[in-house]
Every structure is written in structure tokens, then in C-alpha cells.
Amino acid sequence: MTIGQSTLTRSLGQFVADLSPNRLPEEAARVARMGFIDTIGTMIAGRHEDSVRIITDTLAPGDGPSSLTFGSRHAPAPEAAWINGIAAHALDYDDVALRGHPSTVLVPAILAEAEHLGSSGADMIVAYVAGYETWAELFRRDTGLLHQKGWHPTGLYGAVGAAAACAKLRKLDAEKSAIAIALGASQSAGLMSNFGTMTKPFHAGKAAHAGIMAARLAEAGFTANTDALEHPQGFLHAISPTGTEDRASESKAGVEWAILTQGLGIKKYPTCYCTHRAIDCMLDLVNTSPIKADDVEKITVNISDYFSTVLRNHEPDTGLAAKFSIEFCMASGIIAQRVGLRELTDDFVQRPDIQALMRKVEIVTKSVYDPELPGAATHDQVTVTMANGRTIAGEPVARATGHPARPLTDQQLYDKFADCLDAGNSPIPADVLFKRLSTLQSISARDLTTRV
């Protein structure tokens, strides 16, 4: 089916409508399954966070077909996606790619709507790839760093990607898929100034909710302009930090698979991804050269100026704020010799020894970026200067553990998943749910969330 004059928005609508399971490379399906595994793990881990409780109490959703964080409560799909998206991103432990957190938007939207529709796992995987590739098409059209403009890419790209995913799940034709994408674009939002608060995960949840609403409205006949992405007053130009966005070239969605080249970075630590290379460096350093906090004179962290801007919290006093503090991550690395869920608590962050060591961290920034990692320096490095004058330098780290170039092992992925389910007191055993997700293509959405 053709939908008239080719524009980016229309081309993406055509791509979404035409995508089918037999068109997907097997590796694309594998990456999608990994996105479901990791996001559902972090969703369950975050299910008892205050942000999830507050949004649930405030929305007060009625009963519906879609499960809330794999528990006993159910809600209509739009509200379930909103709540589950906040839960998945609440701990900042979910995967990363394409300058943001694609799965923490796509998975809650797809899961909630798939439960409503009774969709198959195979349909969910196709919907994920549709959303991912749509997100990637927007990502590749602007080399500017959205964070430096104050935008949170997850909230901006996420609403469009989720709209594409839900349009695929609802099997919309090309015209209505394009309208859903345009509706998603008009719901994009998210400010960096709210990092380190409950509003950051709110961006993810609201984008998931927007995706469901965009597809439902488009199906019902709601209108939008099918050049909303590329119009001179459209999405791409509106969010561009420099005004140099590519609005004219042909879409590569379905021609070049971004999910194969970009993949997913699975987080090893429940902190902002901008901290991960430095954490790797610090933990490698303390494993080879044990360091006592009292003996430290100074900790020097070499990161990009972009990373430094994102890591805005220099004196955090809560676990949530500490996720965006390189000072905290370095102090935790030395004192606890780890940076995990049990360290990201208010009590641990407020410990006098942690607070004292944070004050000894110095940030040195670089403005030469890795061409394959937008905003990242070619490597990050940590150097510790001891009170006796001795200097201990960690090995430079160019790719964080969990990056597609340094992937977690299958066992590490399962261990993280099991830890997350334990932290969230999951009503479904980790081994049972992990097995279901590993064979997602063979079961239905409703079977996936069935309690044992």
C-alpha cells in the first residue's frame, strides 16, 4: 500500500505497517527479548518506589486488563503503561541506547496494550522493533546533543517510538500509523533540569502512555499532519540544539537495521549511564590496589564536559539524587567496593564517611568526543592521590561493562534480573519469569504476566 507523497513521517508509517515477523533478522528479535527481560526486571525492582505509589494513588485507575508491575492489581492499558514506565525507570537501572532509554518506554507501552489486545509474544517483538527503528531514525538525523539544550531524549524520542510500536501492535495501516507517529511527536516532553527527582522516570512513563493514546486516537479517526516530523516547524527542528537537523533524506528504517548496529547497553550499575565507565575504572582500581578512604587526598575523574553537565548533583543527600553524582559513585566504589541497589539509599548516601569522601572528588572535563558514543569522551579515567603523595591511576575505560561491545554474559543478565525481582518482592519466581521472557515469541502477553 502507498500513502501518497513520500515524507519522513509517511515513510515511517509505511515501515511500521509493513513490518512483520518474517522480515526481522533473528538477532533483532534476540535484542528485543533482551530489552523485555531487562526492563521487566527493573520494573519489578522499582515497583515499591515512592514515585510509583504516588502516581498510582493519584491516577487511581479502575480495573482493567493490564497488570501493574506484574502484581495482583490491574488497570486500563494507558494508565498501566504510565505507571509501569515510571517503575521501570525509577531506579535508573534500565538499558540505554540511541541517547536515551528505549526499552523503558517501549516495553511498558507494548506490554500494557498487548495484554489489552491479547497479542502474541511474536507481535510484541515486532512492535518493539518498530518502535526502536523509529526512535533510531530520529536519532540519526541530528548529531547535536539534546541534553545540552536541556532536553531528555527518552521523553522526546520515546513518545514517537511508543506510538509506532503501538500502531504496529494494533495493526494500523500506513496512513493511520503515520498519524499515530505525528500524535506521538506532539506529546514529546522531558527536561534535564528535573534529573535526580521523580520527574525523570515520569518522562518515561508519560511517553509510554502517549504511545498508546496516539495509536488509539489514530485508529479512531483523530487527525494529525503526516509531515509532523520533518516540517520546518515540526518535531526535528523544534528539538534540534543547533538547527542542523536532517529533514530531507530518505528514511533508512527497514533498510538498515539500527537494532543490529546500535543494540542495547545493559546497565551493570543502577546509576546514570554517564557514570558507568568511571565506576568500572574505580572498581578495577580498588580490586587491584585496595584503598582506605581515610588515606585518600583527592580523587580525579576525567570525563567529557557533556557527561559532567548531565551529572549535576555534586552534594547529593538522597539515593535518587546520588544516581546523578559522579562524586557519590567514586565514594561508594572505594568504601563499599560496589555501586548497587543497596548503596542507592538515603541512609547510605548520608553516611558521614561517604559525604566526606565525596568532597575529595575533582572532575576534569574533556571536549574531544568518541565518534561512536555521542557526548562521551574517547575514554574515562580515575586517578586517586593518597595522603602520602602516592598516585594510583586506573586503566582508561572506553566502553562500559554491558555495552554491546562488552556485553553481560547470560549468567550476569540472569543474576541482575534475579536481583531485581528479589528487590521488588516479585510474586513470580525469577527462574519462571526469565524462562517465559526467553521464549517470548512462543507465548501470549497474558500468559507472560500470569502469576504462579
How would you describe this protein?
With 452 residues, the chain is of the alpha+beta class. The chain folds into two domains: 8-267 and 418-448, Orthogonal Bundle (2-methylcitrate dehydratase PrpD); 273-393, 2-methylcitrate dehydratase PrpD (60s Ribosomal Protein L30, Chain: A, 2-Layer Sandwich), CATH 3.30.1330. Helices cover 50% and strands 6% of the residues. It is built from 21 helices and six strands. The protein has helices at 8-18, 26-45, 50-59, 77-89, 102-117, 121-139, 146-149, 153-169, 174-185, 199-220, 235-239, 258-261, 276-288, 305-310, 319-322, 326-335, 346-349, 352-358, 410-423, 430-438, 445-448; strands at 66-67, 74-75, 296-304, 361-366, 381-386, 391-393. The strands form two sheets. Strands 4-3-5-6 form a four-stranded mixed beta sheet. A two-stranded antiparallel sheet has the order 1-2. The model has no long low-confidence stretch (mean pLDDT 94).
CATH class of the largest domain: Mainly Alpha
Average pLDDT for all residues: 94
Structural category: alpha+beta
Main β-sheet, spatial strand arrangement? 4-3-5-6
- Output the number of helix runs: 21
Number of DSSP E strands? 6
Strand content bin:
5-15%
Q: Please name the fourth-level CATH homologous superfamily of the largest domain.
A: 2-methylcitrate dehydratase PrpD
Largest sheet: 4 strands, mixed
Helicity range: 40-55%
The CATH architecture of the largest domain would be: Orthogonal Bundle
Shape: globular
Total separate domains:
2
Low-pLDDT windows of residues? none
End-to-end separation in angstroms reads 44 Å
According to CATH, the fold-level topology of the largest domain is 2-methylcitrate dehydratase PrpD
Spell the H/E element sequence: HHHEEHHHHHHHHHHEHHHHHEEEHHH
Q: What is the rounded Rg?
A: 21 Å
